[in-house]
Amino acid sequence: MTIPFPSPATRRVLIADDNPTLIHVLTGVIEGEGFEVVAARDGREAFRVLQTDSDFVAAILDVEMPHINGPDLARHMQTEKRLKRIPVLMMTATHDPQTHFDSLSAGASIFLPKPFTPDQLRMMLKVLESNRRAVRKLSAA
Fold first, then answer.
1. How far apart are CA 20 and CA 109, in angstroms?
2. Domains of the chain: which residue ranges?
3. Best exposed site among 72, 110, 131, 141 by fewest CB in 10 Å?
């Protein structure tokens, strides 16, 4: 059984970062790829969004945010079936290998160190969307 490519209305990405400039840059790149963006200024705001809305192709979370950090939010997402299917990209400017390991252990599919290029982000979006399609295909089987 083939899962159809998500319609444009369902190609949405959640971004959670406390840096408004980075949210603006990410939004520009992601919308340029045909996605709709829902932005949250910190982990608590992203948590609130996820409580009412789980229709995301991917979630892009900063590791270090006020209130709820990225790994804690990803861990929470792993506890709810409707959120677990959303692939997570974790990003940070911290160059500590333990942070990378902790992010992946928390449930992130991909770790993207800052700074990154728009092309790197585009490539990661394609990987995340492909991961989501694979999860949906397995769930339907």
1. 24
2. 9-140
3. 141
Q: What is the dotted CATH code of the domain comprising 9-140?
A: 3.40.50.2300
For 20-29, write each residue's pLDDT tens digit.
999 999 999 9
Q: Note if the pTM is more than 0.85.
A: yes
d(CA 1, CA 61): 32
Q: What are the pLDDT digits (tens) for 121-137?
A: 999 999 988 876 665 55
CB 107 within 8 A of CB 63: no
Q: Where are the alpha helices (DSSP H) in 6-115?
A: 20-32, 43-52, 70-79, 81-84, 97-105
